[in-house]
Amino acid sequence: MAFEAGGSMDAEAREVRALEAEIAALQRRCQELPAPGEKPSGVRKSCQKLPQSDSEGWESSKDLRSHLGHLKSELSFLSTLTGFNIRNYSKKIEAVTNTEVTEEGTTKVLQRHRLSGNCNMVTFQLEFQVLEIQTKEKLSSAITDLNIIMEPTEYSELSEFACRAEERRDLLMFFQSLHFFVEWYEYRKHTFKHFKEKYPDTVHLPEGACSHCMEIHSTSRPGFELVVVWRIQINEEGKVSPKLDLLTKVPQRALVLDKNRVIETAPSSFQTLLGVLGIEAALDSLIKLLCVGNN
Amino acid sequence: MSRSHKKSEELPRVQRDENVLRTKIHELRHLRDKLRAEVKRRQARVKACSANVETNQTAEISEQQVLEKQKENVKAILQAYRFTGLSGKLTSRGVCVCISTAFEGNLLDSFFVDLVMEKPPWIHHHSIPVFIPLEKIAAAYLQSDLQRFLFSLCEYVNAYSGRKYQADRLQSDFEALLTVPLQRNSLCNLLSFTYKVDGRDQSFSFSARLLYEDLTATLPTDVTVTYQGMEASTHWEEHRASHEILFRTKPLHQVFASFSKEVEKLDLSLVS
């Protein structure tokens, strides 16, 4: 009996020793691993190492985001300041070396640019090439090819002007003249709208606010009409200027009765009036003339 | 003495030891299981955490890539503004505007105007040449319409740059044709020079005076060409008159380029 007890006791003692050893090992393991609630510091260290090794010189996301934000606000400011909203731009560079003996040390670089955006209601798409020539004395850059696509296409003055700019490869003139054209366009729209609101029965805009002509009707004398045609011209040098003309629409009988040839001379009188009073005042007095007839 | 006590005392010592051992084993097993569970739990947490960090890192790296790309894109567009003639950088007090000039596709000098954006805005410093009427333009528009101020200034500066370019090209490319060198003022809006052109049988010497009254233009408003020779022949009048028209309608160096072409044409006719 005692012998048996002793034997089982050995087994149990062995088990105790085994359990104690296992427990010790587990306790050591437990100490190695971070406790719940603790930050996994070991893991954190490794995670801090990775960005530095993979992306040297890269800013962290936070820095990138704030830098990007600053750049975007700079872009927005420039867009408002210039009136040009450039939405897309890309550039490709090709090096073209000159191997002629007489032109040692000359390098030529050809850049291909693509740019698109809008200036108010006009959208543009440009493709152009810039050739940079570096000689020993100086660096010169010139546009060697220019393609312009503009919308809307119904402004014939604009499309003629775009052709001229393309021929001369004058990209700068394109932008500068576009700015002034759009400025005059907005002024014309604003002026016509103003007169339509001021004299709703007399003034008619056949094409709406963006009309290039304004009709002045006499309500008391139907058949009498004055039409002011306001074009925006761009000359050879890219200078933008308004060109206003007066057309008269008058019944045949009235023409016969017009001994003083007032109607015939109206267009040239209008030009004089424009020169003296300026556009707004001249138009106002013209409308008032027909309005007087309305009362 | 209690009965249990007596009982325990009555138990043989071996039996007692066995009981103690069994309880100990029980306790140890319990502790071991607890520890096993805890280790398992902690291991699982570490695994989950590192997996999390990994996905966060990949997400962070791809987010960085996206942001980096966007940043490069915006930077490029900001650079592209120089092709419009007006570009700039925000400063701590306002904006430094860069005016780029060009003449018929030839990219020329740039100038800057550093503006302090207070109400009203004012010019901190600039690189506009002194003979450009900057003060006049600023007085007219700077306080009321900044955009108009910049575009107006652009017109003046760009026109000056274009006139200068034409004068420079004349001097560098057609020196041979100038008998009296080009004289010009700093604004390049008053030019005078004497040149000779070969006609059919003889060469004509003309003196030209070009005045650009419109400072926003690159073509002269006033052209006077006078004949410098002694001959009474009538041929020179045609040339003189046509030259006056040419100078008024075409850039200066292009007019001289057309003179050279005429000479070439005449040479060819002599050969045939």
Protein topology:
The complex is a heterodimer of chains A (295) and B (272).
Chain A: H1 2-32, H2 41-54, H3 61-82, E1 85-97, E2 107-119, E3 122-134, E4 139-151, H4 156-168, H5 171-198, E5 203-204, E6 213-217, E7 225-234, E8 240-249, H6 252-257, H7 262-277, H8 279-294
Antiparallel strand pairs in A: 1-2, 2-3, 3-4, 5-6, 6-7, 7-8
Helix pairs in contact in A: 4-5, 7-8
Chain B: H1 3-10, H2 13-80, E1 86-90, E2 94-103, E3 106-116, E4 122-126, H3 134-142, H4 146-173, E5 178-184, E6 190-198, E7 203-211, E8 222-227, H5 235-249, H6 252-271
Antiparallel strand pairs in B: 1-2, 2-3, 3-4, 5-6, 6-7, 7-8
Helix pairs in contact in B: 3-4
**Total helical elements of chain A:** 8
Report the biggest beta sheet of chain B as strand number plus sense, adding barrel if it closes.
4 strands, antiparallel
Widest β-sheet, arrangement of strands of chain B: 1-2-3-4
Give the beta-strand count of chain A: 8
Q: Separation of termini of chain B?
A: 153 Å
Question: Based on helices, strands and strand pairing, what is the structural class of chain A?
Answer: alpha+beta
Number of helices of chain B: 6
Order of helices and strands of chain A: HHHEEEEHHEEEEHHH
Helix content of chain B: 40-55%
What does this structure look like?
The complex is a heterodimer of chains A (295) and B (272). Chain A is an alpha+beta fold and 295 residues long. In chain A, 49% of the residues lie in helices and 27% in strands. In chain A, the strands form two sheets. Chain A has a four-stranded antiparallel β-sheet. In chain A, strands 5-6-7-8 form a four-stranded antiparallel β-sheet. In chain A, strand 3 and strand 4 form a beta hairpin. In chain A, helix 4 runs antiparallel to helix 5 and helix 7 packs across helix 8. Chain A is elongated. Chain B contains six helices and eight strands, in the order ααββββααββββαα. In chain B, helix 3 runs antiparallel to helix 4. The radius of gyration of chain B is 45 Å and the shape is rod-shaped.
